[in-house]
Amino acid sequence: MDSKIQLETAIAARRDDLIALTQDLIRIPTLNPPGQNYRQICDYLKQRLEAAGFTVDLIRATGALADSDTYPRWNMVARYEGGAAGDTVHFNSHHDVVEVGHGWTKPPFGGVLEDGRIYGRGACDMKGGLAASIIAAEAFIATYPRFAGAIEISATADEESGGFGGVAYLAEQGRFDPARVQHVIIPEPLQKDRICLGHRGVWWAQVETKGRIAHGSMPFLGDSAISHMGAVLAEIETHLLPLLAGKTTAMPVVPPQARQSTLNINSIHGGEAEQAEDYTGLPAPCVADRCRIVIDRRFLIEEDIAAVKAELTDMLEQIKASRPRFDYEISDLFEVQPSMTDESSPLVQSVGQAIERVLAQKAEYVVSPGTYDQKHIDRIGRLKNCIAYGPGILELAHQPDEWIGVDDMADSALVMALTLAELLPTA
Ligand SMILES: [Zn+2]
Question: How far is the CA of 268 from the centre of ligand 1 (A)?
Answer without folding.
Answer: 27
